[in-house]
Design brief:
70% of the residues lie in helices and 0% in strands. The longest helix has 24 residues, at 160-183. The N and C termini lie far apart (52 Å). The protein has a single domain (7-96, 115-183), classed as Rna Polymerase Sigma Factor, Chain: A (Orthogonal Bundle). It is mainly α and 184 residues long. It has helices at 7-15, 19-41, 44-61, 71-90, 115-128, 133-144, 149-156, 160-183. Helix 1 (7-15) crosses helix 2 (19-41), helix 3 (44-61) crosses helix 4 (71-90) and helix 7 (149-156) packs across helix 8 (160-183).
Amino acid sequence: MLGTQSDARLISRALAGSSGAWTGLVRRYERRIYNYALRMVGHPDDALDVVQEVFMAVHRNLATFRGESTFASWLFRIANYRSTDFLRRRRTFAPLDETGELPDQAPYSDPAASAGALNVNQRLTLAMQTLPAEQRVVVELKFFQHFTFEEIGGQLGISPNTAKTRLYTALRKLRTVEELKDAL
């Protein structure tokens, strides 16, 4: 039943005190937020910390959601802020461990994923770590979260053209990183 309800309905019910509706919202977005955080901060344990911070902030501030954008857009704005804040606090970027594997206890791992697909995801995650945060977030929001340039601009407080510029600059850098890896 929760899966068929709109975000607006779940939000309304959660604000009225329904823990089931709140759980429904979390379950609907937790995997996307985790994957976003993992690509932004680069380590599974850190990503779980960011996810927890995101949903705590959403829970505290759900009543302030005005519906001027989609709930997903508002949620990813919070996730971006929390990820950026995490990186700022850490000041250095800790990459995935050498195996690049997620811990067994991670609720988000997909046991059916093929080794080849996992390798591609690991390479992409590691390559994205070479990007400055402002480029990394645009790549994440465009390709993994499927937001439009207008939505990305709104979330980040930049123009859609600036979002495009950051994306294309990031793609050039990612291509260079992959070419260097292949050459070695």
